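Table S2 (text version). Query chain:
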Amino acid sequence: MAVGSPLGGDLWVYLERSVDNELLPVSLELLGKGRELADELNQMNSSQQDYEPCQVAALILGDKGLKPMAQTAIAGGADKVFIASHKLLTDYTTEGY
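Corresponding structure-token output:
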């Protein structure tokens, strides 16, 4: 039996950014840990015939200038990056987030 979520899927990491659209160091640390966990799950379950490999998915919220952060996230261990862009996401607000 495969270890991990019975539903399978990806390991998601929310990436925090600075007002200058730079990923915060803590985001890169969490991304690295997510990569380690996903790799460990994949290694433990590699012999399972029906196991879908766990990928690391990163999420970046903001308004403009987010693509360079996506490239940094990929370099930091993300397999894929999702960007949500809207003017309400420029700065953190309870309403927007």
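Notes on Table S2: The mean pLDDT is 88. The first strand starts at residue 11 and ends at 15.
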